[in-house]
Amino acid sequence: MADVRDVAGAVAARDEVDRIGNVLRQMARAGVRRVVLCANGCTDGTVREARRAADAVRVELAVVEFQQPLGHDAPRAIAAMEVWRRWPESAAVLMVDADWRGSFGPMLEDLLRDALEHPKAITGVGGRVRAVDLDRHWQRIVCRAGAPASLCPFLLPQVIPLAAFERVSPRFVASPGLFFAFTRRKGIPWRVYEGWDGRLLGNPARDTSAKARVLDLLREDARAAEIALCGGSGHPPLWPGRRDWQAVEAWMSEMRGPRAAGGVTTSCTDPPPCSRQTTRA
Which Gene3D superfamilies does this UniProt record tie to the protein (predicted)? Predict the structure, then answer.
């Protein structure tokens, strides 16, 4: 069985200078030794602090920077893609948020060990959507797809076997609803890690308008997942208006080699605007 050191981390961050150091330290406590950080239009020294923290805990840190922020969840997809491209021998990619506080490293290690005991499955966490109608909608979708009713495919942490990206492109991580639907259509199981403390949800300062935007995104994701899973009128919205899919496609178009192709035809050939990539051991 693979070891937690065989798991690479993927983190997307926008202006998290006060939190990114703790996140990297806790990932290191869990045994993660390689991390991709997608810096999403950061202006506050997030990258500098991430490098300082990574050096201190001996984590190999690869940074992909975008001067202009991308759409919601697009940085997650780019971080996952870069893990797949840079460290293809990894057993899985661990996706976490960049704004978590507290000493969650031991809990994260337990999650990783649990996930590695089920190497063919995507391991997520359970939770509730803070809107009753939407929560019920998602429960119906995941149950219809043969996943645990408590699963929230859009919540992190999440552990994705890298082999899953051979069957479903990591670009779809930019739309959790589509990624869930397409992986289930390919027969990739999803499971819930029950030991995660649901109070650790990130975004502690999110205001009312931001929460409303997130709920709109979750409705969009639910609609896309339902169409992809169950048919109905129309096709899954592959280019949702609130998501910067074109930046994801542009990043994919720059990747080279057999893993970059992955059976996926990209539809955008222009290079991603204002981006650069660096590595710090």
Answer: Spore Coat Polysaccharide Biosynthesis Protein SpsA, Chain A
Q: What CATH number does residue 192 fall under?
A: 3.90.550.10
Q: What is the 3-state secondary structure (H, E, C) of 219-266?
A: HHHHHHHHHHHHCCCCCCCCCCCCCCHHHHHHHHHHCCCHHHHCCCCC
Query: Measured at the alpha carbon of residue 249, what is the angle toward residues 244 and 251, in degrees to the nearest 5?
Result: 100
Q: How many CB atoms lie within 10 A of CB 197?
A: 10
CB 49 within 8 A of CB 20: yes
- Report the pLDDT averaged over residues 247-256: 68
The total number of structural domains that make up the chain = 1
**Residue 209 banded pLDDT, cuts 50, 70, 90:** confident
Neighbours of 9 (CB within 10 A): 26
Q: Report which of 212, 101, 199, 97 is spatially closest to residue 157, judged by C-alpha positions.
A: 97
* φ, ψ (nearest 5 deg) of residue 153: -65, -15
Identify the domain containing residue 249 by its residue range.
4-280
Q: Which residues lie below 8 Å from residue 71, measured CB to CB, with a gap of 6+? A: 174, 242, 243, 244, 245, 247
Max distance between CA atoms of the chain, in angstroms, equals 53
CB neighbour list of residue 205: distance below 8 Å, 6 or more residues apart: none
CA–CA dist 123, 101 (Å, integer): 22
